[in-house]
Design a protein that fits this description.
homohexamer, alpha+beta, Alpha-Beta Plaits, 4 helices, 5 strands, 28% strand
Chain lengths: 163, 163, 163, 163, 163, 163
């Protein structure tokens, strides 16, 4: 089988892939994920987001800051200078789900999928942290790439894949 | 409603909770999660784990290192000196699932749930990173706390909760 | 002159002072500082703090996170595991001043003055960052130690000193 | 009131502003600040700077290193690759004041005001740390932007503002 | 004597050199070094590298990650966005030597020698860490620059120098 | 062969070893290493160390700061709260050698050998960085453990081993 795992060289050794010669293009990635919480936590979060004690505001900051740290966390990721990072939440109250999406962007030689996925993951972990005194039975679910544009491999859209 | 979100004070301001006076006890936490991959990626990972080019070895290191960085990533987490951190993988080949669990331990004043959850999350993100050149349609699933022991709130076992 | 600058050895070389043999006691420090802003920024901050777009909430998180990073920023500081870190703001609207105070605590062998001062400083810098698109003519003022307790040198109270 | 706090979106949520489309220009910023010290500390610092045991040399290194870490400390700052960072001190012996200025520079899409302010702040905090065994009654004062050039908003000069 | 230590200004103060105006060129650096180990450790490493328990795989990841952190470790280094980083090992079994080389690359305004040297150093330190339970009498040797290309000072080749 | 590489479990997977149950004892480690430089660099360093432009002062700060970061750099090292870290230099002018030693100390459950070795290594790398504009043909040599005390394995003294 041909080596398609680009993070290994022909001898099977891990490498930070050489992207020096790649073209600089506009890159954007959107990642999403969810956390399933109890009724009580859902009520507390909804109250907070319209007033003080806002869990989601803290999680938003954590997610943005984590997206900037991706190159430190993921061993073979290239360090990147993001020029945009945003975190958005939507709440599906009846399903006890809080959804997060993270959008990152830059002009560079390599994609920003991992930055978006890391931002979404840490935002969800922060929600867990802030609510765990109430109930530890939360579950983080369905962290995935929604869309990425730019680069040689072109556009990826979640909707063109079954999940 | 009484304030049960301990990361906020009575005015709704975020705080790093005062644990100075808490008792030092042995604390352990186990967190788990999974990543759903394509047939092709599953085959590559299984080949690698028995030879060179081992995706899971890199992800294991990333998860252990991330568990040590939890206090930097999660805004209101106390910095902690872990005395154990391990990452284990099991593969459910027929379901295209790779499962990770992260176990952390210390003697301290506060629990290590977030360290275990962060270690598991970053291990899964690293698998995503190393396989994304083959297929970006992976999904990280079911990150949750399996068990924690120690501290005033006692033992938590996932099995005593419905999910 | 006797060497009272404890961060240098007898040859004038910088050292991280040996505190290994010091007693573990409860240590607390409170530091404070202010930022002087324009009328327009003051109005925006006051609006935000009662609704969405809250500058002070972001600055609070930044200050808490920075207090945890003090040992990385100040070259000869001992790394410390804070067990409490809080940031509080008060606004003197007529003087166009926002005051911050940072309180940190732990049981340890060395004091936490630098952690409190660093937390206050970064909270103020974050206010500057978030308001600088409106007006760059802000001034950060009067960062100082308010109080510290614990350790061999005992209690320090700002009020017992002229400033 | 129109939203002029660019770090919030139209819903009041914090964002790392999108600067992807901005022009790359030469950017420079100079920030300054001071620390007020006792006679005894002033004498020690002056002795050290002409010999061994030099407080200001350590503070200079700390300030330069901190300017590189700005994107980690200030939540919504873009990570930036500085191409110059310097710290300079001047001493006003009769006023017991040590003045610091930090100059940073790069060619980029966004300004470097925060990097200069952070470098100056951490240099001052380091002076505090190194002298606090002698006297804790020091005060950090007047941290402000002196000048910035480059970018769409053009040049800012402190002298054109009253303070 | 003329000032050729470019990291100091004309007053002898340390600076992060201004490279803003330098040309962007392709830069590459290769650094190497060795660790001398006991017979027993050599045997264990050789066994591991052909199976599980692979010391060199962990050291490779550590070296790559450290090369990305160079700007945080070396005070006056410019932060750089590496576009390639690889670590390679060769074993001289009869001399009980493990050799590491680290190759880094980017298009930028300043060279990447320190990144290559830091990557090699941390890879060697990681081998020490993983084998020190067996024998602490290892020695890290001969860390040096093998080659660098790009930039105004042109190509440097170790072979053109005596050592 | 019995598994003596404690950083791997029985399946050959890397782990951060469990030291939770180990006794807290006073631990100290001293590591040393050298850098071989040209006549010209030796002369510049000697001039600087008695005046301004002091290469060794910057390297000392870098080494102390790096010893605090060891747990971030070496993947399976436990994070540790050092209570002492010092860097000392001696110069063998006739051999063109600068020798560094790093001494670290704490009361803890695990040794500080890696912290001492990392501090020495980064001090040497910093000397390289600051002199490389004069001559890149420097070599870092003989980084090794001089002594460690404390813990179950007792005292290690370099002098009891051949090298």
């Amino acid at each position: 089988m041909e080596n398609k795992l680009t993070h290994f060289d022909q001898n099977g050794n891990a490498v930070m892939v050489d992207v020096t010669g790649k073209e600089i293009t506009l890159r954007e990635a959107v990642a999403a994920g969810s956390i399933r919480v109890s009724d009580e936590i859902m009520r507390m979060i909804l109250e907070g987001s319209s007033a003080k004690g806002d869990v989601l505001s803290v999680a938003r900051i954590a997610g943005i800051m984590a997206s900037k740290k991706t190159g430190e966390l993921i061993p073979l990721c290239h360090p990147l200078m993001l020029t945009k990072s945003t975190i958005d939440f939507t709440v599906e109250e009846d399903k006890n789900l809080i959804h997060v999406s993270c959008t990152v962007r830059l002009e560079g030689k390599t994609g920003v999928e991992m930055e978006a996925l890391t931002g979404a993951s840490v935002a969800l972990l922060t929600i867990y942290d802030m609510c765990k005194a109430v109930d530890k039975n939360m579950v983080i679910e369905q962290i995935h790439l929604v869309r990425k544009t730019g680069g040689k491999s072109g556009t990826y859209e979640e909707s063109t894949h079954e999940r």
